[in-house]
Specification:
Elements lengths: L1 H26 L4 E5 L11 E10 L2 E9 L7 E2 L2 E3 L4 E14 L11 E23 L3 E26 L3 E8 L2 E13 L8 H13 L1 H6 L10 E8 L3 E7 L1
Antiparallel strand pairs: 1-2, 1-12, 2-3, 3-6, 4-5, 5-7, 6-7, 7-8, 8-9, 8-10, 9-12, 10-11
Length: 246
């Protein structure tokens, strides 16, 4: 009888150890992290981006990010007045699979230094009416219709701090990527607009100067006044995320 109890005890210990190893992620490691990404607010205070990270192995996890993404459509240029946007919308989505360095980190994921392949999509569009007040050219209005899309894939390096087992600060400080950039810019109104027109150039220069990452991705910096321009290039990703772990 004692042998039976001893055997049951050993089986229970073995099963408990296996269960603890198998469920350590769910019971002890708190494998879920929800995050808020304030980085897109650099471009517009309206941007909201949330992230979810799930630890699936002691040193591996995956995360997905999604949110509302728009670019500000107001700007100042000589004799150009941008009215309030009539239609402004967009979205952002990204995903990555993380490998936390076993030898470098003293704790399991999601704490410590990691690298990961990632992919992202940013798409936004807006419509504006631009008022032109120029004594040499005349006065009139131009309707600006723009669509911007960026598809990226690359590898990133980051570090996630876990504070008091519950709160996280996730820093992605380098993320080289290969990107495909697509832009559609249409200008029309009661003043003739073409690619040689100084106001078309002014709008193009304003967009490129206001959003430097566009010039990084578009080598020729060309827009089409009535069509779509697509280019390829390299970009970088920098992200700060604040999270809660459970």
């Amino acid at each position: 009888m004692n042998r039976i109890w001893a055997l049951l005890f050993l089986l229970n210990v073995g099963f408990s150890s296996f269960s603890q190893n198998d469920s350590a992620l769910s019971l002890k490691c708190k494998p879920n992290v929800v995050k808020w990404n304030p980085t897109p607010m650099i471009w517009s205070g309206k941007n909201i981006n949330l992230s979810y990270e799930r630890v699936i192995k002691p040193n591996q996890s995956f995360s997905i990010n999604a949110g509302y993404f728009v670019l500000p459509t107001s700007g100042i240029y000589d004799s150009l007045k941008f009215n309030i946007s009539r239609n402004n919308w967009g979205f952002a989505f990204s995903a990555d699979y993380r490998f936390y360095f076993k030898k470098r980190n003293t704790r399991n994921a999601p704490d410590g230094l990691y690298w990961s392949p990632y992919t992202s999509i940013h798409h936004t569009g807006f419509e504006n009416r631009i008022e032109i007040r120029d004594e040499n050219i005349g006065q009139g209005n131009i309707d600006l219709n723009a669509r911007l899309s960026i598809y990226s894939a690359g590898v990133q390096l980051g570090y996630q701090f876990v504070i008091k087992e519950r709160f996280t600060i996730d820093l992605i400080f380098i993320g080289p990527s290969f990107s495909v950039y697509s832009a559609k810019l249409r200008l029309k109104g009661d003043i003739d607009i073409n690619e040689e027109n100084e106001y078309y150039q002014a709008v193009k220069d304003m967009l490129l100067s206001k959003f430097p990452f566009l010039s990084d991705l578009v080598s020729d910096q060309q827009f089409s006044s009535s069509g779509v321009s697509t280019s390829m290039g390299f970009g970088f990703r920098y992200v700060l995320q604040l999270g809660y772990r459970f």
